[in-house]
Structure formats: structure tokens, C-alpha cells
Fold this sequence. Notes:
- The structure holds two protein chains of two kinds.
- By secondary structure, chain A is of the alpha/beta class.
- Chain A has helices at residues 25-35, 86-93, 110-126, 151-158, 176-194, and strands at residues 2-5, 10-18, 45-48, 54-67, 70-78, 98-104, 136-141, 165-167.
- In chain A, strands 1, 2, 3, 4, 5, 6, 7 and 8 form an eight-stranded mixed beta sheet that branches.
- In chain A, helix 2 (86-93) packs across helix 3 (110-126).
- Chain B has four helices and six strands, in the order βαββαβββαα.
- Chain B has helices spanning 9-25, 52-72, 111-138, 150-156, and strands at 4-7, 30-35, 40-45, 80-84, 89-95, 99-105.
- In chain B, strand 2 (30-35) and strand 3 form a beta hairpin.
- Chain B is globular and about 55 Å long.
- Chain A binds chain B through residues 1-8, 11-12, 14, 42-43, 45, 47, 56-57, 59, 61, 64-68, 70, 72, 75, 87-88, 90-92, 94-95, 97, 129-130, 133-135, 181, 184-185, 187-192, 194-195, and chain B through 1-9, 12-13, 35-39, 41, 51, 53-54, 57-58, 61, 64-65, 68, 141, 143-148, 150, 152-154, 156-157.
- Strand 1 of chain A pairs parallel with strand 1 (4-7) of chain B, so a sheet runs across the interface.
Amino acid sequence: MSFINYSSREINCKIVYYGPGLCGKTTNLQYIYNKTNPEAKGKMISLATETERTLFFDFLPLSLGEIRGFKTRFHLYTVPGQVFYDASRKLILKGVDGVVYVGDSQLERMEANIESLENLRSNLQEQGYDLDKLPYVVQYNKRDLPNAIPMDELEAALNPTKMPSFEAVAPKGHGVFDTLKAVAKLVLTELRKGG
Amino acid sequence: MIQQLVMYEEELSQINNVCEILHRDSNARAVLVIDKNGQAFAQAGEVEQLDVTSLSSLTAGNVAATGAIASLLSEKEFAGQFHEGEKTNVHISIVGQRVIMVVLFDERSSLGLVRLRVRKATAELVNILDVLAKKSASGSQPSVFSEITDDDIDNLFND
């Protein structure tokens, strides 16, 4: 749920990075955090286990600049990817304005990719959202690995509705900001439609 | 499709006023009002040293998790939470099922006093939020978005 503050002239939006365990959601946020000017970002919070797996969520507040005198702030969240954290994933989707689905390009993760995408769709439905009507982009991460599946196969399996999609190598930053910009644009465009 | 929470000058000033009075009457260190998605919109007291953004996001996560526990136990909600620290204590309450009020206090106050003052502030806040919801739903205020062009959005992403 976007939050428009006419008093402080701010627009706040929530973007959630979703995907199977170890697909690189947290790595996306870490890269964005490392490459963003200090004045445009807040502290990055990671609620993780001792083995650095996301336990509840990662959170990164970002300022993207001004539109017509309104500061635009995006709150980026990741969900825990592991299957058994489903209750937590549902909570994090509450009030979402835009979704990034991060798929893992490796052949052996295809089943997990599909399961996670179905899980995203059903968890959104539970909250009254329709993935096909939300600002939504797809990122295929780990494109540099030797066992990465060709893009057309990934697209056929994970992006049947042909939403904007991006190839990525998150630790090196390839595709990370392209993905963020694409979803942020869709969110603002959607807000304008509603406004 | 996207739901919006809209805050206007007049109501924000009233909410800030409620926070100021609660801060003073409860001898609290600080008072924050945040929406259920973790965005702070009103505050009073010693907030300069606080990372309000992080605090708000984590509190909202905490309230959401507690709400999910309540639902698993067939409770409607757990309306309040209290965390006791060595120096700072935190009282968290849900107001009108819409926003979260956070009171940080130390040895200058007590849980009893905070609870008492929060109750009064909550009643006032509910009234303000009702007005805000009606105003927002009626669409009587001009929208900032009606003027925005594709170029405005594109310009935001020019490096």
C-alpha cells in the first residue's frame, strides 16, 4: 500500500523481492546498498539465521529523487525463500506495491523456481492481489553459471505473461539496477493510473 | 489495484499534537506513530538519535508476526506488546486496526502510566483516522499523480 504524505511531500512504496531459497534476493539488495550514495539510502536490515539464510526479511529504504516536488521513497524487502517459511512470506507481501520475482537460472533449481512462483501467486491471492494486475518484473539470476538454462526455456516456464524480464549476475551487479528501475517505474505508473 | 494511505497536513498536525501530549503526559522518551506497513508518519520526543526508519519497519514486522500468531491461536489480535530493556522499554499498541503506536520510555516513567496515557491518546487517534479515511475515500483532495507525465517518471531514473 503506497503512502502519500502531502504534509512532508513524500511518496512511499513497498517492493518485495520473491523467489526460491538461495536464488539471490538478499544479494540483489546488498548490491543496491553497496552502490547507492549514503544520502539516498537508510540502514540495511537483515533478519537472518546464523548461517546467513534469511529468517524473516531483509529491508532497505531507498530515496530515488523527486517527482513534482514529492520525494519518492522505496522500501525494498526480501522474503525468506525456504519452503517452510511460508507464514512469514505472507506477512511480507501485505501492502506490497510491486514485486520482483528472482529466478535461479540453474537447471537443478527449476522445480524450486516453479514452486516459488506458484507460491507467490497463491499468497498474493490470499491477500486479495492478482499477480497479473500488480507491477511485476522477472529477473533470471546466476546467468554466469555453466549449468544455466537458455533464456527462452526460462521465459517459457517462468514468464508466460511476458512481463519485463532481466538477466542478472547479482554479486557483480549485472541486471540488478535494471530490474529495480523497471519495477519502480511500473509502480509509479500504476499509482498515476489510480491517482 | 494499489491501495493507498493518504496523509494530509491538517490531520498530520492533529496526530503530531496527540503524540506531543502523550510524550509529555507519560514522561516518555519518544512516541512514534507508524502505519502497519512500517512507515513512520508522526513522532515526538527524543527521536534525533533513533533510526526511525529501521525501527518502524522492524516494529511493523513484529506486529505482523504477532498478529499471525494471534490468528493461529484463534485470537482476533494481540492489541499490545511490551518489551522490557535494561534502560529503555517499548510499549507497542495497534490503533483502530490501522496504525501502530510505539512509546519508548525509561525509568522516568512506568508501564502503568504509559498504558493509561496510551488509552486516552488511542481514542483521539481513532477519531482522526476516521476523518482521514473518509477524506481519502471521497477523493475530495487533488491528487499529486494526475499531473505526473511519463517524462517525469523517466527523469527520475536518468543517471
